[in-house]
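To close the chapter, one final illustration. This time we ask the reader to focus less on the individual chains and more on the assembly as a whole: which components sit near each other, and how the overall shape emerges from the parts.
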Amino acid sequence: MAPIARRAHALKEALDRKKLIPEGFIENFTKLMEVDWDPANGARVVARAWVDPAFRTLLIKDGTRACEQFGYTGPQGEYIVALENTPTLQNVIVCTLCSCTAWPVLGLPPDWYKSFEYRSRVVRESRSVLREMGLDLPESVEIKVWDTTAETRYMVLPFRPAGTEGWSEEKLASIVTKDVLIGVARPLANA
Amino acid sequence: MDGIHDLGGTDGFGTVPHHVNSQSYKPVFHEPWEHLAYSLLFLGADHLKTFNVDELRHAIERMEPRQYLAAPYYDRIVVGTASLYVEKGVLTQAELEALAGGAFPLARPQTEGRAARPTRSHFEVGDEVIATRDFIRGHTRMPKYVRGKKGRIVHRTSVEWPFPDAAGHGREALRQPTYHVSFDAKDLFGDGAEASSVVVDLWEGYLEKAGAPNV
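The assembled structure is written out below.
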């Protein structure tokens, strides 16, 4: 088998020779993937929900409209549902069948999220998987796993940690990481 | 399709290769060709309308299982995308192999898929439902770990989408809402289950009212 780099370039070259790739198409789409779709987007949405109760209500009721206010909808982010954590509930997102993720809000899925290990195990051995990854939840915390099998794209709305009273939205957003939005980490005030 | 891709609940894999918050996630792509995978997929799906994303998912599922397991993620996107351009008559495998300077194995052949069962009734939040006992040779978005299991509706979508078992084969597809169906993890994985519940987003055509005969 030809190496993947050669196969990928062969596919592009074959389409190019038939004049099927418009000028700038690949560059523009690559910019969306590398720059525009970023977990900092989801972090801003969470920070707003933490400081603005009306926005929080909207985010839980209609995640798509809430994210639209920031311009964070688009491919793989057309029907967004926010999953609200509490001190005793941790929501975790997976796509066991492939890699579905809310691209505009969370960024493209990381390699580990697309790994066979995560896809196979997190629905069944959630607590162990989270512990191995560094999130050791006590038994009193319920774990709910959401398998992204259709068009809904999820984001986790984490619980605002103690010690963040009076923080600016920007500072709050800085503790909401990509892993927090996927649900395998919890935000920490002293991070 | 009960293929190798339907991994939920499969045993034997090791630890997830990640420790929380240890990565900056930049750069997004690690190899100079990786951005081509999604770019050329969206060229075909969004711009040229040669195929749809359901067909792409199914093309990847149709990869020979050993090739699927050995290929990195973006390699699978390239193989699935290339397979569809060839199956739709846009490119030939011969020209791809000539340009690649070696073999370019594609997905295995398509089956015919199935039409959506006509919608009989909407379900409501709180309803108990059974995921159908259907065994599907073609594309489907119902992971096999919920087949025949009882769950409870927690959300009905306000939008309807093409039934993937038809759309994934390039067939005309009825639109249906999907439902977030919450399954007790113990019903899925026994007493060893480590979550309280697993919520799966299922098209209406995958569901029956609990207690109704399986027809």
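Residues 33-100 of chain B form a domain with the Cyclin A; domain 1 fold (CATH 1.10.472.20). Chain B has seven helices and seven strands. With these observations in hand, you are ready for the problems at the end of the chapter.
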